[in-house]
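S1.2 Input.
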Amino acid sequence: MQITAAVARERFGPFSVEKVELTDPRPDELLVKIIASGMCQTDQHGRDGYYNTPLPAVFGHEGAGVVAAVGHAVTQFAPGDHVVISFPSCGACDNCRRKMAWHCQDNFKLKMSGKRPDGSTLMSQHGTPVYSAFFQQSSFATHAIANERFAVKVRRDAPLDLLGPLACSGQTGAGAVLNTLQPEPGDALAVFGVGAVGLSALMAAKIAGCDPIIAIDIHPERLALARELGATHVLENDAGTDVVREMQKITAAGMRFSLDTSAQPAVLRQAVQALMPGGTCVLLGSARSGTEVSLEMPFLQFGRTVRGIIQGASQPQVFIPQLVDFIMAGRLPIERMISFYPLDDINRAAQDSSSGAAIKPVLRMPH
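S1.3 Output.
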């Protein structure tokens, strides 16, 4: 079928909204009418060659929509179902068999190659392939193909244009807190970098009853929003502020948990230095290959843990519906960090995302 999609044709170039051909769903696939798709820096990094995704390509990995058709082998979905398309996994490697699909050993290829596992593409134009299986969805389009295993059915009374970010940034931040750290009420938690991932973590910390919740960022307007969403304290991480010392004034014992979403070595070091003995620091931001950080080994000896988390260590079919319930109950007000753009305005959305003017751009599809 012919659809409309945002095509990237050159590194660091603009997206071009064009007509392309979308293949039919295979027996285990869904055809999803995309209502809206979140945009994050991963999409722009893909366009700009960070992951060697071939061009021309259609990006987008936070799609939410309505099932339009299903392959004959699909058993869990039917036309009309509301879905969020989550991250892919092979289902067969050691980590997938251990129910750790977020650490699938084929995840880089499945996410970044722009092709199905068998090498085929989902889209084409005038007989030429358009690389279009980014995160096995490529949701910057009016329609997408998704494997049944990667789709998550959600309640029909939830607004679909809010739910796409749950596929990546939402479950990454909230899942790091609720799935991995599992804080108890009264545990001290700090979030370094309150973009979409950081704010999702912060709101989850409020749900968990953490206190204090400290937000650290370089953008005063983001810190103001963080306070409205549950931060008990905010700190601007400028050159003249020793944020670790300022955090010690808030809680002399140190933080039980800290999360770094910036992936900047100096910030990660701060997040580790802020920990109490036995505390845990989580790296959520994505750094370029070769990025290194130095830490004092004696400081780590006192039971402090530093670890990375991918996709919130989430079982999406279980966790995303839980997050939707939080949204509908008013406990996860992600609409406060979302800015909507029509698909035709994708380049303004990308610019606002890069500049920090928008925390979480969401593209609404023309239908």
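S1.4 Remarks. The longest strand covers residues 29-38.
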